[in-house]
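Internal tracking record. Fields below are filled automatically when a chain is submitted to the structure queue. Please do not edit lines marked as system-generated. If the sequence contains nonstandard residues, flag them in the REMARKS field before resubmitting.
Queue: standard
Priority: normal
Entity type: single polypeptide chain
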Amino acid sequence: MELTDADLLARVLVDGDQHAFGELVRRHQSPVRGLLRQLTRADVELADDLAQETFIRAYKNIRSFRGEAKFSTWLYRIAYNVFRDQARKRKELVGIDEAQWQSQADPQTADPGLRHDLMNALNSLPLHERSAIVLCCQNGLSHDEAARVLEIPLGTVKTNVLRGREKLKKILAAWGP
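SYSTEM-GENERATED OUTPUT FOLLOWS
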Protein backbone atom coordinates (compact mmCIF):
# COMPACT_ATOMS: atom_id res chain seq x y z
CA MET A 1 0.00 0.00 0.00
CA GLU A 2 1.38 3.38 -1.04
CA LEU A 3 1.67 6.03 1.64
CA THR A 4 -0.28 9.24 1.23
CA ASP A 5 1.35 12.66 1.21
CA ALA A 6 -0.01 13.16 4.74
CA ASP A 7 1.66 9.93 5.90
CA LEU A 8 4.96 10.98 4.37
CA LEU A 9 4.68 14.45 5.88
CA ALA A 10 4.07 12.93 9.29
CA ARG A 11 7.21 10.83 8.93
CA VAL A 12 9.21 13.90 7.97
CA LEU A 13 7.83 15.99 10.83
CA VAL A 14 7.91 13.35 13.55
CA ASP A 15 10.98 11.31 12.64
CA GLY A 16 12.93 13.69 10.41
CA ASP A 17 12.72 10.96 7.77
CA GLN A 18 14.65 12.25 4.75
CA HIS A 19 13.58 9.25 2.67
CA ALA A 20 9.95 10.24 3.19
CA PHE A 21 10.74 13.76 1.98
CA GLY A 22 12.59 12.22 -0.97
CA GLU A 23 9.42 10.35 -1.87
CA LEU A 24 7.43 13.60 -1.71
CA VAL A 25 9.97 15.18 -4.05
CA ARG A 26 9.73 12.23 -6.43
CA ARG A 27 5.93 12.48 -6.50
CA HIS A 28 5.76 16.21 -7.05
CA GLN A 29 8.89 17.15 -8.98
CA SER A 30 7.40 16.75 -12.46
CA PRO A 31 4.36 19.00 -11.87
CA VAL A 32 6.50 21.61 -10.10
CA ARG A 33 9.10 21.56 -12.87
CA GLY A 34 6.33 21.74 -15.49
CA LEU A 35 4.81 24.82 -13.88
CA LEU A 36 8.21 26.48 -13.59
CA ARG A 37 9.01 25.69 -17.23
CA GLN A 38 5.82 27.48 -18.23
CA LEU A 39 6.66 30.42 -16.03
CA THR A 40 10.26 30.69 -17.29
CA ARG A 41 9.19 30.55 -20.93
CA ALA A 42 10.94 27.29 -21.80
CA ASP A 43 14.20 27.99 -19.99
CA VAL A 44 14.68 24.38 -18.87
CA GLU A 45 17.89 25.00 -16.95
CA LEU A 46 16.41 27.93 -15.05
CA ALA A 47 13.21 25.99 -14.35
CA ASP A 48 15.21 23.08 -12.98
CA ASP A 49 17.25 25.43 -10.77
CA LEU A 50 14.06 27.03 -9.49
CA ALA A 51 12.50 23.61 -8.86
CA GLN A 52 15.54 22.64 -6.81
CA GLU A 53 15.23 25.88 -4.83
CA THR A 54 11.52 25.15 -4.35
CA PHE A 55 12.22 21.80 -2.73
CA ILE A 56 15.05 23.21 -0.62
CA ARG A 57 12.68 25.90 0.70
CA ALA A 58 9.96 23.31 1.22
CA TYR A 59 12.31 21.14 3.27
CA LYS A 60 13.57 24.06 5.34
CA ASN A 61 10.02 25.28 5.98
CA ILE A 62 8.20 21.96 6.23
CA ARG A 63 7.03 22.78 9.76
CA SER A 64 5.16 25.81 8.42
CA PHE A 65 2.87 23.55 6.36
CA ARG A 66 -0.44 23.79 8.24
CA GLY A 67 -2.44 21.36 6.15
CA GLU A 68 -5.01 23.98 5.16
CA ALA A 69 -4.45 23.03 1.53
CA LYS A 70 -3.03 20.01 -0.24
CA PHE A 71 0.72 19.57 -0.05
CA SER A 72 0.93 20.05 -3.83
CA THR A 73 -0.82 23.43 -3.55
CA TRP A 74 1.67 24.47 -0.88
CA LEU A 75 4.52 23.44 -3.19
CA TYR A 76 3.02 25.37 -6.13
CA ARG A 77 2.85 28.46 -3.90
CA ILE A 78 6.53 28.06 -2.98
CA ALA A 79 7.46 27.50 -6.64
CA TYR A 80 5.52 30.60 -7.69
CA ASN A 81 7.25 32.65 -4.98
CA VAL A 82 10.68 31.32 -5.99
CA PHE A 83 9.90 32.29 -9.58
CA ARG A 84 8.69 35.76 -8.57
CA ASP A 85 11.81 36.32 -6.45
CA GLN A 86 14.01 35.33 -9.39
CA ALA A 87 11.98 37.46 -11.81
CA ARG A 88 12.28 40.49 -9.56
CA LYS A 89 16.03 40.03 -9.47
CA ARG A 90 16.09 39.98 -13.24
CA LYS A 91 13.36 42.65 -13.48
CA GLU A 92 11.31 40.49 -15.80
CA LEU A 93 7.57 40.40 -16.28
CA VAL A 94 6.01 37.64 -14.20
CA GLY A 95 3.70 35.46 -16.27
CA ILE A 96 2.96 32.09 -17.80
CA ASP A 97 3.93 31.23 -21.34
CA GLU A 98 1.63 28.53 -22.62
CA ALA A 99 3.92 27.77 -25.55
CA GLN A 100 5.42 25.20 -23.22
CA TRP A 101 2.33 23.10 -23.70
CA GLN A 102 3.62 22.16 -27.12
CA SER A 103 6.30 20.03 -25.49
CA GLN A 104 3.83 18.24 -23.25
CA ALA A 105 1.62 15.41 -24.46
CA ASP A 106 -1.92 16.36 -23.51
CA PRO A 107 -4.38 13.76 -24.79
CA GLN A 108 -7.03 16.42 -25.40
CA THR A 109 -4.67 18.42 -27.61
CA ALA A 110 -2.63 15.65 -29.21
CA ASP A 111 -3.27 17.18 -32.64
CA PRO A 112 -0.34 19.59 -33.22
CA GLY A 113 -2.54 21.97 -35.23
CA LEU A 114 -5.15 22.15 -32.50
CA ARG A 115 -2.47 22.60 -29.86
CA HIS A 116 -0.94 25.43 -31.91
CA ASP A 117 -4.34 27.12 -32.27
CA LEU A 118 -4.98 26.76 -28.55
CA MET A 119 -1.59 28.28 -27.70
CA ASN A 120 -2.23 31.23 -30.00
CA ALA A 121 -5.68 31.72 -28.52
CA LEU A 122 -4.28 31.56 -24.97
CA ASN A 123 -1.62 34.09 -25.86
CA SER A 124 -4.37 36.55 -26.79
CA LEU A 125 -5.86 36.40 -23.28
CA PRO A 126 -4.83 38.84 -20.55
CA LEU A 127 -2.20 37.45 -18.17
CA HIS A 128 -4.58 37.10 -15.21
CA GLU A 129 -6.99 34.96 -17.25
CA ARG A 130 -4.20 32.87 -18.81
CA SER A 131 -2.63 32.19 -15.40
CA ALA A 132 -5.95 31.06 -13.89
CA ILE A 133 -6.72 28.81 -16.87
CA VAL A 134 -3.25 27.24 -16.87
CA LEU A 135 -3.37 26.46 -13.15
CA CYS A 136 -6.96 25.19 -13.12
CA CYS A 137 -7.36 23.56 -16.51
CA GLN A 138 -3.86 22.42 -17.39
CA ASN A 139 -2.42 21.73 -13.93
CA GLY A 140 -5.68 20.49 -12.42
CA LEU A 141 -5.82 22.80 -9.40
CA SER A 142 -9.18 23.67 -7.90
CA HIS A 143 -10.27 27.29 -7.98
CA ASP A 144 -9.49 27.54 -4.28
CA GLU A 145 -6.00 26.11 -4.77
CA ALA A 146 -5.30 28.47 -7.67
CA ALA A 147 -6.44 31.40 -5.50
CA ARG A 148 -3.90 30.36 -2.88
CA VAL A 149 -1.13 30.03 -5.46
CA LEU A 150 -1.87 33.36 -7.13
CA GLU A 151 -2.75 35.08 -3.85
CA ILE A 152 -6.00 36.48 -5.20
CA PRO A 153 -9.61 36.05 -4.02
CA LEU A 154 -11.43 32.85 -4.93
CA GLY A 155 -14.13 34.78 -6.79
CA THR A 156 -11.48 36.47 -8.92
CA VAL A 157 -10.04 33.11 -9.97
CA LYS A 158 -13.50 31.82 -10.86
CA THR A 159 -14.23 34.95 -12.86
CA ASN A 160 -10.87 34.79 -14.65
CA VAL A 161 -11.36 31.13 -15.60
CA LEU A 162 -14.94 31.72 -16.75
CA ARG A 163 -14.12 34.81 -18.80
CA GLY A 164 -10.98 33.23 -20.21
CA ARG A 165 -12.84 30.11 -21.32
CA GLU A 166 -15.57 32.17 -22.96
CA LYS A 167 -12.99 34.23 -24.83
CA LEU A 168 -11.19 31.05 -25.91
CA LYS A 169 -14.45 29.60 -27.25
CA LYS A 170 -15.12 32.75 -29.28
CA ILE A 171 -11.58 32.97 -30.61
CA LEU A 172 -11.40 29.32 -31.61
CA ALA A 173 -14.91 29.37 -33.10
CA ALA A 174 -14.00 32.39 -35.22
CA TRP A 175 -11.04 30.50 -36.66
CA GLY A 176 -13.43 27.85 -37.97
CA PRO A 177 -13.06 24.05 -38.19
